[in-house]
């Protein structure tokens, strides 16, 4: 499998090269040259298959022979070492819980898969190090820190916006030590992301072998397809169309869902539910894509004003807005609406959602009016404990502390404060 840049001004590369580079030399995101639908009998028999077998079938064509099948299966097994349950919230509405991994966020899947791919590619390069440089609006940092902790030949540098991630999220990326380093940026997520992109294009840093573990990296992004296959496997027996609602920040999950549909997964419709950072909902109204500075909200992982993966979604629909609209709607909700629906869900069903999932639920309920015979699935992208400062006061409850979180609570936060790209560059040159 070859990958091309969506800016169409860079050479095609292998899976390995795309993973190691992260971003193409022309600043474009990499995209697979072809997408071959999976055979019909795969979907007919999916409920009989293990999650590992499903994941292997879904991703094998995108890796090709660059990782031997036996090793790829091992990587997948190590990636998927936890559950992905669909939980009934009300009649016809299910939460797909993606937070049962080590850092209790959906990004555990992509981070674990990517770290193991990178370790495989580095196995014979004893003197060659990669530096994984990643911006986080919340959960990416913790997942990447956990996924890459102790991986030989890889240093990890995480940038996060000061005061705009939760205390637990911050602890997950600042307390591990070893090959993990955290930089607290005086700014918003988009500032962090801009610094990361600038570093990739800085020729004077080429010797650091920089790569990204944001969803711009194909090895972080592509495994996010797995969730949709797992949900379909669990709910297939109902014989109803499925509508998926994804709380959307950088649009990696929903883009991966559309990839799953292109592989043949029968998904009726997608909803991209956002907070007040409504670049994509506005695009669907006006037809103009106008990125804007991000605004801080209680669903902080979605505080993205210029979602990186949206260009991949446009590519999947060949920039045909009408075709795109048939499969895809997008709605935005403010913090007040988010808090209210957290209360409503808890009151009506006893289910404890978190702010991102709550936004996903809102978007799903609105879209389901157009699909009366379907079942709806909204993604719960992180455990409510990651947002206890919101969930506990809104619901008037005290959340039990899971063991995954307990392990970081009493550890010292170690981070370096920076304001500018020059400070980031200086830090990278010293490490």
Strand count, sense and closure of the main sheet? 6 strands, mixed
Per DSSP E runs of 2 or more residues, the count of β-strands stands at 14
Helical content class: 40-55%
- Which architecture of the domain at 83-105 and 221-400 does the CATH hierarchy give at level 2? 3-Layer(aba) Sandwich
Rounded mean pLDDT is: 92
3D shape: globular
Distance from N terminus to C terminus (CA atoms, Å) equals 34 Å
Model regions low in confidence, pLDDT < 50 over at least 5 residues: none
Specify the structural class. alpha/beta
Can you summarize this structure?
The protein has 431 residues and is an alpha/beta fold.
Index terms:
431 residues, alpha/beta, six-stranded mixed beta sheet, five-stranded parallel beta sheet, 19 helices
């Amino acid at each position: 499998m070859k990958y091309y840049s969506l800016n169409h001004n860079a050479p095609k590369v292998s899976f390995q090269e795309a993973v190691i580079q992260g971003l193409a030399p022309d600043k474009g995101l990499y995209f697979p040259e072809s997408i071959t639908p999976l055979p019909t009998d795969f979907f007919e028999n999916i409920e009989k298959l293990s999650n590992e077998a499903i994941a292997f079938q879904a991703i094998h064509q995108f890796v090709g022979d660059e990782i031997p099948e036996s090793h790829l299966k091992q990587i997948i097994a190590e990636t998927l070492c936890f559950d992905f349950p669909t939980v009934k919230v009300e009649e016809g509405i299910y939460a797909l819980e993606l937070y049962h991994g080590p850092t209790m966020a959906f990004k555990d899947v992509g981070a674990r898969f990517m770290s193991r791919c990178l370790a495989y590619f580095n196995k014979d390069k004893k003197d060659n190090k990669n530096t994984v440089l990643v911006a986080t609006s919340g959960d990416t940092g913790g997942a990447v820190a956990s996924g890459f902790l102790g991986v030989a030949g890889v240093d990890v540098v995480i940038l996060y916006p000061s005061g705009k991630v939760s205390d637990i999220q911050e602890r997950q990326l600042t307390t591990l030590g070893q090959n993990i380093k955290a930089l607290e940026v005086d700014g918003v997520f988009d500032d962090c992301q801009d610094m990361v992109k600038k570093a990739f294009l800085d020729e004077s840093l080429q010797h650091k072998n920089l790569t990204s573990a944001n969803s711009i990296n194909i090895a972080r992004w592509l495994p996010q397809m797995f969730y949709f296959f797992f949900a379909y496997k669990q709910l297939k027996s109902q014989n109803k169309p499925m509508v998926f609602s994804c709380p959307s920040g950088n649009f990696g999950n929903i883009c991966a869902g559309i990839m799953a549909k292109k592989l043949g997964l029968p998904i009726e419709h997608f909803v991209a539910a956002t907070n007040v950072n409504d670049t994509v909902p506005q695009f669907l109204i006006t037809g103009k894509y106008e990125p804007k500075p991000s605004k801080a909200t209680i669903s902080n992982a979605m505080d993205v004003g210029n979602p990186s993966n949206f260009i991949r979604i446009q590519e999947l629909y060949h920039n045909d807005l009408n075709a795109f609209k048939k499969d895809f709607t997008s709605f935005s909700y403010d913090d007040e609406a988010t808090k209210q629906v957290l209360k409503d869900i808890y009151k009506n069903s006893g289910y404890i959602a978190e702010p991102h999932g709550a936004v996903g639920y809102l978007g799903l309920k609105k879209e389901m009016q157009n699909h009366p015979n379907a079942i709806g699935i909204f993604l719960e992208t992180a455990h409510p404990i990651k947002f206890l400062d919101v969930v506990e006061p809104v619901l008037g409850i005290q959340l039990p502390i899971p063991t995954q979180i307990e392990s970081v609570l009493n550890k010292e936060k170690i981070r370096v404060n920076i304001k500018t790209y020059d400070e980031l560059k200086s830090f990278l040159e010293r490490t």
